[in-house]
Every structure is written in C-alpha cells, then in structure tokens.
Amino acid sequence: MVNDIWVVSDKKEEKFLRRKTADFDFKKFTKKEIAELISRMRRIMRAANGIGLSANQIGLDLNMFVAEVPDMDQGGTKFYALFNPKIEKKSGETGIFEEGCLSIPGTWGYVPRAERVALAGFDKNGKAVKIKAWGLLAHVFQHETDHLQGKLFIDRTKKVFTHEKE
Ligand SMILES: [Zn+2]
Fold first, then answer.
1. According to the model, what pLDDT value does residue 2 have?
2. What is the pTM of this model?
3. Ligand 1 centroid to 130 CA: how many Å?
4. What is the CA radius of gyration of the chain?
5. SS3 129
6. Alpha-carbon gap, residue 110 to 66, rounded angstroms
C-alpha cells in the first residue's frame, strides 16, 4: 500500500519495518524529488496526527524521517526532515514517555529514553547538520532513528497497553 502507513499487523509489512533501511543517496534524487518526498511524508504524518514518520513506514527503503513537534521556545511547531540520521550522543537522565506508533495502531507503552541527544545527519540539500534535542523532540528523534534501523518501540518496553492511560 504505497502512500499509506505500513503496519506490523500485516506480516509482509512487519518484515519490511523490521529491516534496516538503505542509506539515502543524494545523487539518486533531484532536488524536486526530495522536496516532493518531504511534502508527501509531511502530508501523511499530519493526516495521521503523528509527530514523526520514517520513510520505511510508507514502504520506502530510505534512511530518512520527518518530525513535527511543538516548539518550546517560539510556540507553534517545528518541522524536521532528516536524512541518514544518527544519534551521536545521549546524555541526561533517562526519561520515560508513553509512546505510540503509527505502524502499531492501538498500542502504547512506556519507553525509557535519554532525555538529551545530539543527532547528526543531513538536511534536504545534503548538507551535514547537527541538532541538539531534549524532551519530546529527543524522544521522537530516538523513536525515528530506531525505525530506520528496523527497531520498534515495543522492543524497548515490557509494558504495552491497548488504550491510552487516563
Ligand atoms: Zn513509530
């Protein structure tokens, strides 16, 4: 189902989601194709009320994700599109957030993650970037970089539940 979000309840889709994605090769895409990829992923993420979406969640074997989270400093939201991302450094306390995933609908769990991370990757122009994140954004970065390595949040928690806690 291209354009739609792949889910673990489908065995074939689960197998794909459990595979490490291929490195994004900027030479293989035009600027226009990259812009279209980003806007398509943003559209799908927003339509699903998500705050992050990895390319393999829509069936694309590409090491990239988009994220959109509230901007604590300036209000509104901040949008990210990151290519070949890597968590370079984790620090701070371990925080436990309730996580869900567009690929595992109806399931939530408490996932311990580093409160602060430094993410290294590339922007849409292939320019190297480094982003320091904390709180929700740090959790989203870890959730999405996990996806791109074929890892899901349910692998990191023992406690999953099928409805949101009050
Ligand atoms: Zn997810």
1. 42
2. 0.94
3. 22
4. 15
5. strand
6. 22
Identified catalytic residue from 93, 115, 144, 164: 144
How far apart CA 146 and CA 20 sit, in angstroms, is 9
Interval between CA 17 and ligand 1 midpoint (Å): 10
**pLDDT tens-digit profile of 53-112?**
999 999 999 999 999 999 878 889 999 999 999 999 999 889 998 999 999 999 999 999
Beta-carbon contacts of residue 7 (< 8 Å; ≥ 6 apart): 13, 14, 103, 104, 105
The string of DSSP codes covering 13-67 is HHHHHTSPPPPP-GGGS-HHHHHHHHHHHHHHHHHTT-SEEEGGGGT---SEEEE
Q: In Å, what is the CA distance from 37 to each residue of 3, 29, 83?
A: 11, 10, 12
Task: Compute the 3-state secondary structure of the chain and give helix, strand, coil in percent, each to the nearest 5.
Answer: 30, 35, 35
**Could you tell me which of 104, 149, 80, 100 has the C-alpha nearest to residue 8?**
104
Residue 13: count other Cβ atoms within 10 Å of its Cβ.
19
Distance CA 160, CA 111 (A): 9
